[in-house]
Amino acid sequence: MTAHGALARVIRSAADRAVRDDSEVCELCAARVSAEHAHLYDTGAAEVRCACRPCSVLFADGGAGEGRYRLVPRRRLRLPPVDTGVLGVPVGLVFFVPRSDGTVTAQGPSPAGAMRWEVDAAAWQRLAATVPQLAAMTPDVEALLVNTVRGVDAHWIVPVDDCYRMIALVRREWQGLSGGGRVWSAVEQFFGELTERS
């Protein structure tokens, strides 16, 4: 039996044992996952998926998934202030994701979910030339997360799943036309809880 066959058998077995309740499950095989589980970025659907350990090994980065899934890293790095104004995105709570094809997207939270813009790739490259950490980001799965709202000046390189957590938080807490006080307290707490990790 090949290593791939053995791993596939483990995945099927885990799925068979999965308990169908409200706990999180692997979105590839339906096995239950722990609170601290891996995420895969699905390049076909442009979505982040929860993954159990066997699936994260099997499908990530050119495994059986032939590159469709990319393992989302855990690295978080706090940066000194970065002049993102040169990227032409007129919002203070936003994240920038360089893509494998050379494009760069910016996304910001709103009550309806994420707003998305295309960023001038040449402007991103010029900025990355002055901030080496940006040039070293892993395409599709790491983001430059920026918060300059209400006097905050926070700049982080984070896994994209952190960004999607922030978008979900804003959507959940938003009230009225301006968001209300609760949403900004929640955003402040979100950034306050970010910790550096390699």
Averaging pLDDT over every residue, what do you get? 85
Tally of DSSP helical segments: 6
User: Proportion of β residues?
Assistant: 15-25%
Radius of gyration, in Å, reads: 18 Å
Q: Helicity, in percent?
A: 25-40%
What's the arrangement of strands in the largest beta sheet? 4-9-8-5-6-7
**C-alpha geometry:** globular
How widely separated are the two ends?
36 Å
Compute the number of strand runs.
9
What is the chain-wise order of helices and strands?
Answer: HEEHEEEEEHHEEHH
Largest sheet: 6 strands, antiparallel
Return residue spans where pLDDT drops below 50 for at least 5 consecutive residues. 14-21
Number of individual domains: 2
Q: Structural class given helices, strands, pairing? A: alpha+beta
Topology diagram in text:
Elements: H1 3-17, E1 38-42, E2 47-51, H2 53-59, E3 69-71, E4 77-79, E5 93-98, E6 104-110, E7 113-119, H3 121-130, H4 132-135, E8 142-147, E9 154-159, H5 160-173, H6 180-192
Antiparallel strand pairs: 1-2, 1-3, 4-9, 5-6, 5-8, 6-7, 8-9
Helix pairs in contact: 5-6
What attributes does this structure have?
globular; 32% helix; single chain; 9 strands
Overview of this protein structure:
- The chain folds into 2 domains: 3-71, no CATH class; 77-192, no CATH class.
- Helix content is 32%, strand content 24%.
- It has 6 helices and 9 strands.
- It has helices spanning 3-17, 53-59, 121-130, 132-135, 160-173, 180-192; strands at 38-42, 47-51, 69-71, 77-79, 93-98, 104-110, 113-119, 142-147, 154-159.
- A 6-stranded antiparallel β-sheet has the order 4-9-8-5-6-7. A 3-stranded antiparallel β-sheet has the order 2-1-3.
- Strand 5 and strand 6 (104-110) form a beta hairpin.
- The protein is globular.
- It starts with a helix and ends in a 6-residue tail after the last helix.
- The model is unreliable at 14-21 (pLDDT under 50).
